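Two records follow; treat each independently.
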Amino acid sequence: MVPGKPQTLVIGSSPVLVADVARAAADPRFHVKLNQDALSLLGRSREIVEYTAASGERVYGLNTLLGSGRDTAVEEKSLLSYQIQVVRYHNSGVGSYLDRAASRSVILARLIGFSRGGSGVRPGTAEFYAEMLNRGVFPAIPREGSVGSSDLTQLAAVAAVAIGEGEAFNADGALVPGAKALADAGLQPLVLAPGEALALVSANAYSVGVGTLALLRLQQLAELADVALSLSLETIARYDGGGNLSPFSPAIQAAKAVDGQRDSAAAVRRLLSGGWLEDVRPEVSVQDALSFRAAPQTHGAFRTLVAQLDAALDVELNGRGDNPLVDVESGRMISGGNFQPMQLALAFEGLRLALAHVGISCERRIAKLYPPQRAIRARHLQAAASGEALAQEELPGLLWYSAAGLLAELKALAAPATLGAPTLSADVEDHSTLAPLALQQLEKSLDAAEKLLAIEALTASYLLLEAGAAQPLGKGTGAVVGRLADVLARRPSAPDLVERARTELRDLVDQELSEEGEKTW
């Protein structure tokens, strides 16, 4: 992207890329536009809704109540008022509000859902959602409230603002009435047509939209895990006679056809290229501990699950999860269960378990970096006993304990989240995915895992700096140590140290993933 230059995401009939959605959500400079293909499909879809309504056919949510009231008709003269009632009824979320990127991701995911033709909203309604994004309308969307059978409460918070109700954030971050947020953006409140209220709220746009943002972080973390591992390999080579690279060799990786594993091993070889570990050392240990030696298997399995989440998000983003589904080909409105994103929920579940395993290996490597730190402290204490001022160390001594606490958190977060939903709506809604809860737990796991890997990278970098430059570091590991050396030299507090390291490492990984995947290390 060119700095300062707005970008446009054009939504048409072709598939939308998950990465594009995440980028457009994260950057408020992005504008979105529905092309003529999308608008034409929306028009045909809406014609089917209007024809069905005029025919008198009973259709869920079009002319009936919802949930356990599915077989109770709504009188024609009440249909417009019913739209407002549906939005108000479902606007019941609680908890903290989503940030701007997450809020944009929800609106964008629902807009893309409209464009697939299954919702039956008018073209103008879809364009209104596009304008909310383009003009910076920031609905206040509560985080909690969805059980994963459509993210009803989150989407109702968006719909409430669209009709001039609810709340939104202004440019200063203060909560204002939804009507004022629209007026400030030069928009008039949307007047919903029959069937549109349900179409606005009945989708998984929170799980899908925020899931795309989580995916980008997961892809970064896959690279970060290999960076931290590579630094630790360099470190144990200097202090403990380890750092055997044979487990990362192409021959070992070719012996087992796991794409993620091969990618992880290749990343480590690339990070260490040009350094002294590439030369076979007669004194090197024949085998390092499994947290080093089998790391490609662990990191590779994690990478595989990240790819599976990418595929699940692609399905949900470009599919038609509406109920009832407006089927343009047959000209009918059909009740179904595509709003149940089970594949996506299970992808969120599996990734938390995978992150816990990545964390276990990471914490065990940190533990093996502790004896050299203890020796350094002993040396400093001995110098102080001789009359020198006690050296102030750049690395807080008990970061390993913080790492152990983070690992415990990762293990707790790995417990299943999707099995706990009770039955709702008079036992009609008797199974739910709890995909939003699984996603929220995944976001917490990401935070813990990022901190854990940052601690490993900091610890290894500190020890490599203490060891001096007798042996050349790899091209990639050298670049990381150089960045983290500046962070360590500032001697910030432990929380600030880890946060600064996370920022630096994220920046390095982003550079590595930039330029269409071209590897810079």
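The next record belongs to a different protein.
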Amino acid sequence: MSESKSPDMPDWERRFRAPRVSLPDWAEDAPDRSLFVSNATGTYELYAWDRATGEQRQATDRPNGTTDGVLSPDGAWIWWFDDKDGDEFGIWRRQPFTGGENAPAVPGLAPSYPAGLALARDGRTAVVGRSTDDEGTTIHLAREGEDPVEIYRHRESAGVGGLSHDGSLIAVEHTEHGDAMHAALRVLRPDGSAVIELDDTEGGTRELGLEVLGFAPVDGDTRLLIGHQRRGRWEPLVWDVATGVETDLALDLPGDVGAEWYPDGSALLIAHSFEARSELFRYDLAAGELTRIPTPPGTVSGATARPDGSVEYLWSSAAEPPAVRSTSGGVVLEPPGMACPPSVAGEDAWVEGPGGRIHALIQKPAGATGPLPTVFDLHGGPTWHDSDSFAAGPAAWVDHGYAVIRINYRGSTGYGRAWTDALKHRVGLIELEDVAAVREWAVSSGLADPGRLILTGASWGGYLTLLGLGTQPEAWSLGIAVVPVADYVTAYHDEMESLKAMDRTLLGGTPEEVPERFAASSPLTYVDQVKAPVYISAGVNDPRCPIRQIDNYVKRLETRGATHEVYRYDAGHGSLVVEERIKQVRLELEFAERHLARA
């Protein structure tokens, strides 16, 4: 019997092996044709699904997996991004929905980082965004059989936001003003000429962001749905780009609000995220009425309105594994194979911190009482947040007897613009002030054992882990940093251009312009103060947290003779291979078991 079917397999491993599916994307003009991501083969790949026949077909097959893909509106083509072993630098390819050869989708465009893609309903036109270190961002109009035409270029980061239903208008999100956290919007014609611009400001300072949510799905309709931050959180409004008229919806919802069009353009599907949980509504544009769509308590990770008026959504909670459900009843798409074991429900804690109340999510073994060995698992981003949603990694720690605390520190989304934007200049140090406050609460409340505290996280969470081990050396028993920033200056020079722009915004300049800020926020500055054992894992092809800057940090640990282990794997910013994910979690658990026993 294979290991994957072994009855002795622990639940934590089953959670990683159990087949998962994403929310299916569907073709606007062929709604029975859908595209989704699944790990059914042990690697996350794209799958074509013909709803009319029920047939499912694996569309991509690469050693390191594929998740970035989109259907053409006519349902004829699957476009997918082809990079090299997770380095995120490559080209778009396409294949027929029914199967066939993978060919370059736009032969005239050289490899790049992706910066958005919009496909026209005519089946032969695309708007392709590209980003390179040398050119900045370029956007191209590509018609089948013709050379692509550049219609936009700028040194700062930008991206394709959307294409109108009739293909006559192109929405672009850009940061030409130099603030990568708050984009402006420009609408172009296919020849690159500008139609209209929207750039929110406050008091003469650019501190309010805009985002494209989509053009109305009706021919000749010039309404563009956008997100704004004018009342201190993300909310939608309808902007007629032909007349400039803005229709503010002013929904009476306390958290961040996202939206997308219903297929006939008469209503909006509203996604409301507040204090780590989410819910759905239907907003009738003519009547101005908001109607709640019943969903279970937890988190909706994605939702889409279908032509028949039903809504499909991907839902989970900390205890319950994800499922694609429909308001018409039942599960929409259920992968074959072993079922994913549940975990334990999450609890909320609110802790007073130096910048306001901090929301933490707690999971602990059923029936356990403190003090417990405790994992402080910090999310990435930083513009992201942990939610009441299912996560196999934290569940694995709980299965091994640990409490897990996930902290929505300043910089996290979902708690208002001021909370998200609080990071500037004292990057990393601000987040760790919040982490320290939650740590103090967890110990004083009797939940956490002060002699067995693990600081961990991936990406930005991995960065905060290394920074915390150096700036708070007495606080932590050990650290586990996954794909981290370790040497901020070297990371800046080696990372992809869009992240350089973000770092310039966060820190107020380049390493040459504000060296003291980069030094203050860099884990390498404090490496000699680290006392706890350190485990680091890193993808050798990672363009976001590149390997050279991690090697610089590790060499300093080696010079000191500090206790540490490093695991390098052949992928980018994380792995899409199930066996690799299981291996990494097993190594982390074993590292903790060895070193906490001596702490």
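Discussion point: Residues 578-596 form the longest helix (19 residues). How would you locate this feature using only the token line?
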